[in-house]
Amino acid sequence: MPDVTKEREPGIFQQVAEYEPPRSWRTRLIGRPLASADAPHQTIGKAVGLAVFASDTLSSVAYATDEILFVLAAAGTAAFVYTVPIALCIIALLIMLTVSYRQTIHAYPGGGGAYIVARDNLGELPAQTAGAALLTDYILTVSVSIASGVAQITSAYPALFPYRVTLSVGLVLFMMLVNLRGVRESGMVFAGPTYFFVVMMFVTVGLGLSRFLLGSLGVVDNPPVLHIAPSMQSATLFLLLHAFSNGTTAVTGVEAVSNGVQAFKEPRSRNAGITLIWMAVILGTLFLSISFLARQIGAIPSETETVISQLARTVYGSRDMLVSR
Question: How far apart are CA 274 and CA 47, in angstroms?
Fold first, then answer.
C-alpha cells in the first residue's frame, strides 16, 4: 500500500506510511523495514549522535597510547620520553582534521564524506581511492576497537585471556545485529556504554592528574615484562615516525560525523558540527592525558595488560577493586 499524506496541523502536511509488514523472527531480530515516510522520525540529536558516530573515535583512546609505546619499546624504556611530544603532534593533526571536516559538514549538508568531496573536486579515480580506503578503514576500525575492548576486559579479568578470540567474534556479531536495526535504535543502545566509558575515563585521568600534582601518583606496581628486540637500541627518526604513524589510530573515525550529516535533526549542519567539536575535545583531552600519565607512572606496553589497566590500578591503588587475583 503506498504512503499517504495526512494533515498534521492546519496547512501542514506529513507523509505517513500506512502499511506495516507482519512481524517475523527477522523483524524481531533486526527490526522492521522502514518506509521512506518514516525517515524523518529516525533522525537523532547531538547527544545520541555523539554515541553513534564518535564511539569508534573515542574508543581509540583506549589503545592509541599503547600503539605508540609498542614501537618506542624497540629502543628501550628511555625512548618513552617521546610519548608526549608524539601525542602533541597527533593532537595538532586532530585539530586540522576537525577544522577540515567541520567545513565539509557545512559545504555538504546532505552528507560529505571523503568520496563525495574527492569526486567533486578531484575526479572519479581519487574518489574511488578514497572510498576504498574508507571501506578498509571501517573494517579495521571494527576489528581493532573490538580487540581493544576485549583486551581491557581480559586485563581486568585475566581468567578470560584464553577466550579473547571467542569474545571478540561474539562482540563483532553483536555489533552487527545492533547496527542492522538502524541509526536511531543503535544509538540508544550505544549511548549508555559510550557515556559510561567517557565519564569513567575522565574520572580516572582526573584523579591521576590530581595525584600527580599532589606528588602521590607513584608508578605501576609489578608492571608487565618488556621484551626489547636486540637489533634496535636507539630512537631513530624512522622509529619516531613509525610511532607517530601507529599513534594516529587516535584520529580514526573523525570523518564519521561528516558522513552521517543526514542522520541528524534539523538544523543538520549545525548539530553535526557541534557534535564533531564535542568529539574532538573529548578525544584530544583523554588521549593527551593518558599519554602523559602513562609516561609518569612508567606504564609498559604488553599483550596481557593494557596501558589503561595499568593506569587505573595505579590511580585507584589495586586491580583488586575489579577482580580478586
Answer: 10
Cα separation, 45 vs 59, in Å, equals 21
Our measurement of the distance from residue 61's CA atom to the centroid of its chain's CA atoms, rounded to an integer in Å, reads 7
Backbone angles phi, psi at 217, to 5 degrees: -70, -50
> What's the pTM value of the predicted model, to 2 decimals?
0.81
Higher pLDDT: 163 or 253? It is: 163
CB contact set of 266 (below 8 Å; sequence gap of 6+): 43
∠ CA 91-247-96 to the nearest 5 degrees? 30
Residues ≥6 apart with Cβ < 8 Å to 151: 63, 164, 303, 306
Q: How far is the CA of 248 from the CAs of 162, 245, 270, in angstroms? A: 29, 5, 27
pLDDT per residue as tens digits for the range 3-33: 555 544 455 545 555 555 566 666 666 666 6
Domain boundaries of the chain, sorted by first residue: 56-321
Exposure of 138 by Cβ count < 10 A (0-12 exposed, 13-18 middle, 19+ buried)? middle
